[in-house]
Write a structure and sequence with these properties.
By secondary structure, the protein is mostly helical. 55% of the residues lie in helices and 0% in strands.
Length: 186
């Protein structure tokens, strides 16, 4: 959804009236305000399906959701490996340090603000609670996540299971995709 400045002002004023009248069992006026003021109007249709305009999610929002899903599934998968598989992974992935290597780095608060803002709205909607999705990485990571997603999405679609996660080979391939091609020594 997109709104004109006049429409935003009207909606914000209606939120004030809604709050002053203490209306219950309706929309959350604070949520609506946050979505409008942060240009995350997609979140209104996401949270309130009856208000969904049918235009789909903006690309950066889908990207943030996929990245958060990827880190959740990587953590889940790693926790399902036995000790010998974990040792094999440690020898197959450069600089792998176990679970600490699976902590979501975040988005750069200076250069990836659109992504960080979308992550903040997901947090407000209580999505992806198993990771700190709103972390400021203080370094750009979008290009890294794109490389990882190029490997992860086919793995999630083809070999993900509820009881184990993705395959060990896919897991290793996703983590190795973090390394920029020019630094792989291949």
């Amino acid at each position: 959804m997109s709104y004109t400045q006049a429409e935003k002002l009207q909606i914000l004023m209606l939120c004030d009236i809604h709050r002053a009248l203490k209306i219950r069992d309706s929309v959350d006026p604070s949520f609506i305000e946050d979505a409008l003021l942060t240009e995350n109007t997609w979140a209104i249709g996401f949270r309130y399906q009856s208000l969904n305009d049918g235009n789909g999610m903006p690309r950066h929002v889908t990207f943030v959701g996929d990245v958060a899903d990827m880190y959740s599934i990587l953590q889940y998968t790693y926790n399902n490996f036995d000790e010998s598989e974990k040792a094999e992974i440690a020898s197959s992935v450069p600089n792998f340090k176990g679970e600490s290597s699976l902590v979501f780095p975040g988005f750069d608060g200076n250069n990836e603000t659109e992504y960080l803002s979308a992550a903040d709205m997901f947090k407000r909607m209580e999505r992806f609670e198993d990771i700190d999705i709103t972390k400021n990485s203080h370094a750009p990571y979008v290009a890294t996540y794109k490389r990882m997603l190029d490997v992860f999405i086919p793995a999630r679609n083809d070999d993900w299971t509820h009881d184990a996660g993705i395959s060990k080979d896919s897991f290793v391939a996703v983590l190795n995709a973090r390394i920029h091609p020019s630094n792989r020594g291949v």
